[in-house]
Amino acid sequence: MVSERWRVSRARGAAIAEVGAAITPGRSLLGQPEECALPAIAAAFEPSTDTTGHPDGFTLPRAALSVDAAAIIVHELRNTERICGTQALQAAAGLAVEHAAGAPLHDVTRIAKLVRTRLDQDGIEPRDDLLRMSERCTIRELPNGMTQLRAELAPENAAGLREQGIGR
């Protein structure tokens, strides 16, 4: 919807929506406001006292992060959401914003990956265990006699099927 409304690519629209979801305060079941998931990133969009000169003599307030930089940070932090608590995630977001403010995108990517790596002290094995636990497969007979197979597989299991030519 965002990509069609603003006439941007779907990837850009998805990045904008992901950042929006991370910085928008939620509501509880009773309608009471809750804190947003990543308040440090939301605060980075607030205009700072640092201004940039405009050719016509105007001064424009400048935010600490661009939407693209925030999307990179949010994406990397979402990868560690299952393995760390809310406080650790918010502290990591604050650290990432602090170091990424005003940095070029390739540096923001590097910073976000470093922060993600620091949060994920156990390495890749627990993530693989989570992937294996979430595997599922459904087999259904269709009215025309064909069999429909749907599966969500861990990478190593999917690789075995791909070697046999299944799923191409």
Mean pLDDT: 80
Sum up the overall morphology in one term.
globular
Oligomer: single chain
Q: What strand line-up does the widest sheet have?
A: 1-2
List low-confidence stretches: none
Give the count of structural domains.
2
- Rg, please? 21 Å
Q: How many strands?
A: 4
Number of separate helices: 8
Residues in β-strands, percent: 5-15%
Class of secondary structure makeup: mainly alpha
Biggest sheet features: 2 strands, antiparallel
In sequence order, what are the helices and strands, one letter per element?
HHHEEHHHHEEH
Helicity, as a percent range? 40-55%
The N- to C-terminal Cα distance equals 30 Å
Question: In words, what does this structure look like?
Answer:
With 168 residues, the protein is mainly alpha-helical. It folds into 2 domains: 2-121, no CATH class; 128-163, no CATH class. The protein is built from 8 helices and 4 strands; from the N terminus they run αααββααααββα. The strands form 2 sheets. It has a two-stranded antiparallel sheet. Strands 3-4 form a two-stranded antiparallel sheet. The longest helix has 15 residues, at 86-100. The chain is globular. The model has no long low-confidence stretch (mean pLDDT 80).
